[in-house]
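Holo prediction — S-adenosyl-L-homocysteine.
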Amino acid sequence: MSDGGMLDRSEPRGTGKHFVPPKSHAGHGRPGTQNRLDELAASLRLGQAEPGVVYLVGAGPGDPGLVTVRAARLVATADVVLHDLLVAQELLDLARPEAELYDVGKVGDGRHVAQEDTNALMVRLAQEGRSVVRLKGGDPFVFGRGGEELAELLEAGVRAEVVAGVTSGTGALAAAGIPATHRLLASAVAFVTGHGHDEKPESGRDWGSLAHFPGTLVFYMAVKALPIVSRELIAHGRSPDEPAAVIERGTSDEQRVTRATLAELPKVARAARVRAPALVVVGDVAGLGGELDWRAMRPLDGKRVVVTRAGDHAAQLAGRLRSLGAIAIELPAIRTEPTGEPLPSLEGAQLVCVSSPAAADALRAALSAEGKDLRALAGAKVAAVGPGTADALRRHGITADLVPTRAVTEGLIEAIDAAGLKPSRAVIVQAKGGRTLLADTLRGRGVDVAVAALHETLPEPLGERDLSDLRGADAVLFASGSAVHAVKDALGADGAEVLRTLRCIAIGPTTATALTALGVEPAAVADPHTPDGLVEATVGLLG
Ligand code: SAH
């Protein structure tokens, strides 16, 4: 086995004919994401990927938050993306639906694509006039053979650009709470390759200089060579008691830090079954990690939290959970689809009620589809069922006039009364098959009510992986009754029983009722009944 994987020359070579074919990617149909990225790119004055140019782009150490804006912009606009194994999926998801994605980190049978095949492919694609992004883990010029790739491209007359990335030597150390330098402990840092030490340990390596280096040593690709690194450094004068650490999969959800003295580290790492990709850190700063382990101090550190729906709103919720340290798993148990029903006339409507963030999106989409804009709402008061819906409306340029403090239909009715609204005509935008309470109440008062069921939530079949994520979750978040039913059905005959064994958190009373109807006692009910409330309830339960 080789450490470091993607750069290992000892692996059998690919033939160049076996590139893993372009993958489908989930970036499709997320126009909102693209627009926001375009705006950011414009404010930072960042151009797009140009035809005939190859971009050697650093993708950072794994955490999508450590991708540069330039990298994101280039991936989002390129014709072709060639990437390594360790690149954040969220970054790849930004690629255009028409873009071709190639995994050159491996060929079909798990071997690596030969460097010369990758180079030849890049040259050919550029000469065909395509814009090509070559995504590399970390920084392209730090142990990434970026220098060689650049030389080949320029030699072939291809225009190229290099985009720096966060190298794992800084990114993973930051995530592990190990400062690379420290005013009192380390005034220098060296990035060293561990590769090759295993083959001819005594040749070509100036162990004396490394051992006497006055600061932190960071070894890349050194899992296999760890015994040699430890032995040679000590043999050449480094203290066997010096603190050291191995950081595996740094910055990712699976990050693990194993600490020991320099002398003990090989044994401890072997016992802990340490695997690549990993960095070996040698220096007094490695002894600080325990007290500086900021990740462990995050309120939801390492907790597996499942969000039971797909789409932009779920992605936002997952982002918030993640920034609190959770391993947020987006389970696409339900998805939202337009029903294709026409938008009822808004003419003469004094009140438009919007019942969920998805309904807000559907309303905006339906207006556009009919060639209308927000002026169609000019004569009406707009009521949102809760702050989450009000946020979604605001993103579409609509400021809600009414947002009840209790984010349920009952609260909305109270708010309408409190505001003294007595509409003669009202339009309610809600999911197909949603609660009829609001329509019934208004109709009971003689209001002419039109229900706009512009979207519906449909259950999605879940895969084995999804179901095992669910079973292993520390908490499962439900934002609607339809998500409860979809998850129960996806779990099969004993769905309700499985849910009873899990800590389920409901966004509000309606969702909680859907759970109790199945005999599942929610572990918490969010209050306020909003995505923020869900996050708070999760921290309250698990934090
Ligand atoms: N260009 C990359 C390094 C490529 S060499 C960079 O700048 O980071 C591959 C080696 O990088 C791996 O063997 C491992 O030692 C290190 N590495 C890359 N990503 C890592 C991560 N997330 N955590 C720990 N080590 C990582």
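READOUT: Residues 31-43 form the longest helix (13 residues).
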